[in-house]
Amino acid sequence: MASIEYAYIRLNDGLYDEELRQKLGTCFDAAVNCCGMRGRTAVQVLIASGLAQQLECQNPGFVAGKSGTELLMWALDSCGFPADVPNPARMPTSPDYWVGYM
Predict the structure, then answer these.
(1) Which of 23, 63, 83, 93 is buried deepest, with most CB atoms within 10 A?
(2) Domain regions of the chain by residue span
(3) Averaged pLDDT, groups of 10, the chain, 102 residues long
């Protein structure tokens, strides 16, 4: 029987908590709905690029300095993928946004 494991970023009640959630939600939403990635692939790109580590330590250059779409472009570029991400033209309320937000 297969098992499923979930990983998550543990926040330290820092200054950027809400902003981090919103940007990660937008990043995940753009990866899935604008770039056509599967959720698992999007997570692997965020981890392999080092973005997950930067967000975990709440590096202000990433959390406060870039939009969610810019974070995704940075992660894709770091992994050698084409980094042309269209800007979402809608409010980020998809289920994928909320997966990234949580």
Answers:
(1) 23
(2) 17-101
(3) 56 70 85 86 91 84 84 90 67 67 64
